[in-house]
Structures are given as C-alpha cells and as structure tokens.
Amino acid sequence: MTFAKLMIHAVLAGIYGGLVVTLLLVLGNPGAASRGAGAGPGLLIVVLLYALAAGLVWPLLYAVVRFFASHPLRLPWLSLRYLVGFHAVNTAVILAAGWIMLSGHRAALDPRDADRLANACLGLSLAWLAGAVITVVPRLRRRALAPAVAGGAALAALLVAASGGTPSPATGTLVTGALSPLRGGAPGGVPAPGGDRPIARAPGETRPQGTGTSASSYRRAPAARRLLLLNFDGADLDTILTMHAQGKLPAFSRFIQEGAGGRLLSVRPCAAAVTRTSLVTGMLPYRHGVRATEAVSVLGRDPWLEVTPPGIGFHLLLSPLLARRALGVADRSTPALWEIGTRMGWTAESAGWDVDLDAAGPAAVRAGPDWVADLLDPEASRPQDSAARALMAEIVRAAAADEEVFGALRRAVERPGQGIAAFSFPGLDRVAHIFLRYARPADFGNVTGREVDLYGPVLERYYGKMDAIVGSALQPGPGETLVLVTSTHGIEPMTLGRRFLKELTGGGPRSGVHDRGPGGFLLALGPNIRRGHLFGKGSLADVAPSALYALGLPVARDSDGAILTTLFSEDFTASHPVTVVGSYGEAR
After folding, report:
1. CA–CA separation, 190 vs 232, rounded Å?
2. Which domains can be identified in the chain, with CATH numbers?
3. 104-123: pLDDT as tens digits
4. Which of 260, 279, 439, 550 is at 20 to 30 A from 304, Cα to Cα?
C-alpha cells in the first residue's frame, strides 16, 4: 500500500510536469494548441504519458533511496509535503529541458516567442525554487502551511505562463508590410530593369542603404554572369589550412592565394536541413520554416511539432504514438538562390541539398571502385568482422552520394551561360562523424594502433577527393564565373561523457559531432573578388545576399543576412550600387 500511495503523489506531480511539457511544446511551436482537430487530444496524451512515467520512475527511485532506512515509512493517501517533494524533482528535469530548448533552438524561434518562452521558464523556475527549498529544509518541510504555499505558487506560475502574451504568426510566414517593393517594380516585388536603386555603399559597409539615388551616375563594373556554389557539410577550415600548408590541396590553395574567404558562424539546431536552408535562403530558421531534421505529431494528426524539449525522452516515451516526417531544404517557406535566379530569368539547377546521410536510410551502392580504392588501403577494403564491414558500408554510402552530386556538377560545368548552379555534397560530413576518432586519436585515447593504420588516413583522403571536386569547378578557369565553396558547420570530437554513454549503450560508431554548432567557412574565387583576403567572420545567412550582390541581382530587404562587401574589390563596391527589393516572397 505504501508504494501505491507514493505512486499517487508522483502521478499528481507528473500531471503538473506534463502540463509544463505541453506548454513548452506550444511555445516552441506557435499555434500548436489551436491548429487542427488533433491538437487537444494529442497534448492530453502527452500529459497522461508523462504523469504515468513520473508515477513509476520517482517511486522506484525513492524506494531505492529508502532501502536501508532504519524506520518504516508512514504515508497518508494525500500529503502536500510528499507531493511538493515529487514535484521538485520531476519539474527540475523538465525545466532544465526547457532552458536547453531555449538555448539550442534560439534561431528557430521568433524573437517574440523566444522571449515568451524565456519568461515562462523564469517564472516556473522561481516557483520551483520555492518548492525545492521547502523540500530540502527540514524546518520548513514540517510546517503545514509551507507546502501549500509552494503548491499554490507552482500553479499560479503555470497559469501566468500559459496565459501571458500572444504567439507570433506561424513559422515561415514572412512579415514584410514595412518593406515595400521599389517603385517601378515588376510583378512579385522584383524591380524592373531601370527601376530605382539605392545609393552606393562605401567599401566595408555590410547593410544596404535606403533607396533614393539613381545608379546612372556610377560606372558599373561588370558583375559575375554565373554562380557555382559547392557546399561540404562537416568540412573544417583549420584542417583545410593545415593540408594547404602541406601542399595537399591544390584547388583550395587557389582560393586561399587568389580569392577571399573567412569563417561562418553556424546556427542551432546545427542539423543539415536547418543549416543548409539558412545558407541558400539568407534567412534564419524561424523565417525559412525548416527548424529541425524532422517533424512529429501524436497519432499522425495536427499539430506537427518541430521543436521539442530535449533530454526528457519525448521521442522515446511517445514513440509508439508518433508519426514522423523528415524535413529538408525542399520544405522551406522562402525561396532559395536557384529559385530567385529562375524568377529573374536566369537558368538554375541544384542537387544534393536534401540528402542527409545521418537521417536517411542506406544509399544505393553505386560508388565507383576508384572512390573506395582511393580512400581505403587494400587490407581495410577486405573487412573480416562486422564492425569493419559497417565502416566499409559508411564509406560506400558517402562516396555514392557524393559521386551522384559530382556527376550533376560536371554536367553543369560543361554548360556555359548565365545561371546559378548549387550543389551540396553530403559525404564528408558522414565520414567525419565516423572516422574523426581515427584521424585524431589523441583526442579520444581508446584507438588502437592497428585502427589508426587502417582508418587514420580516410578522413584526410576524403578531403583530397573534395579538393578534386572543387578543382573540377575551376576548369578551365573561373572567367566570369563566381565559385563559392562553403561549409555550413565544422566537426568536433564527441565529449567524454557522451563517449562513455555511447560505449555503455552501444550507440554506434559516431565520434565526431556538431551539436554545438562549430563554425563553417566561405571561400570565394572569381571576378571582382579580393585577392588573398580574409574577411574574418560572417554568418550562414550572409552567403545568399552576398551572392546576389555579386551577380548584380536585387537583394531582399527582409533577408536576415548582410552583404559581405569586404569579399569584393573596392572598385566593384564603389561602382556597383546595391539593388534592393522588399521581399522575394514565399517559395513555390
């Protein structure tokens, strides 16, 4: 009977915790509580499952703690003291998840929603602190009124958090009422040729100025007629600079010696779908609408949730009831570079942007034999055990995905003319995830000498393959083509705690991670690019407006990115005023 009484108190505390979880879901996914017929039942299921989980977990842990107690536990069917105690431990875990969600998904939240979430977490945390103090201080715990005050404060904080503020419009909706198109613009907000243009910016200025001065008084330098954008997720600029110094990357050496570049700050959550979409749209995640690698819904009905509290087993607990839908660049609500190009009458093509080897299933084995032979020593190419075969399969998947995109790049290079061609190569990111521990054994410590001999060179050789891909884009020469090479994020070793947990649970071969958003880079080579210049740091959202500016196309005022004007020569920025447009609207 005592355990049943503990369960009742834990379930009641769990109901409160479940309500906090639903509040976090609603604040992280604006409009979730009111969209669709399934919102109410779905959120109710979340509350009930978290209440049941609390009713099982906390009594069991409490029983373990009291196993060696010298006196029996005498517990009534309803005790505010025990109820507040279970509330203190249960809500602590959920509030920690709320703060982590706020930190890790800041770029995925509208600033108003982020402020609302922060205020809710702060108010709930202050109320929780009162309950925690009463729980741990014996003198307060024995007072009959103190637990009642703590419980009342917790309920009041939840009501205030649930009713405070108005959610922002649904994610992906562009609010551009204050950003009117230029006078004389063509349909869709794009200015017609000869329309008003803004005044020229001084070199180094990073934001377009207001309109009002005609560009006729400026001698316009010729802009690039073609853009080739090559993206390699997981590529690390420090590794590239080291290999460049060793003479191992001739194509990248051309960018470093003859072009310009610098580091790009990534965004969080640092997932392929999110970072790539920010790169090609010039928008932050809450604007372009791709805020996670997947959307989930309870029972497969609305609302679909993208931002969920981490660390409290949300996906595990609700797994039997969750429907999942993978998200990618194609799910954006704002146009990408190539879509803007087609609207302006240019030819445009893209490939590889929705291929995520971390989220997708095994790729078809179509990699040419040269790829695998170039990456692996003959002994490693004939794996004997299951672990070695798994590593071999990862290399084949990565090479197959990149070889397919490489074929599209070769065909694009052979077709001259004005246009935008953008290609994302997903293989390096996957190889870095798996083989970082063999390339940098000193950072891990549990790598054998044989493993280093067999797999240590794989990552560096993959950088060599990447260099060959970049080199193909430069043949026979850039001419009027602007070539941009980017990485939306770098890679870093998995933390010691996560490695230990992975070893205990058999969590797979991954050793490199990018959860904390290590920076990527941008390298540029082509007409009007400064020679041998480093611009310092930019952001992912700066790439799209900078590319449009280099091509002489209008830059949207509602872009979250800025033009990296220090990429370009002073003659170009002085004679090439920025054409702006209010917004490019939504993706089609």
Report:
1. 31
2. 2-163 (no CATH), 225-288+331-360+394-563 (3.40.720.10)
3. 898 899 999 999 999 999 99
4. 279
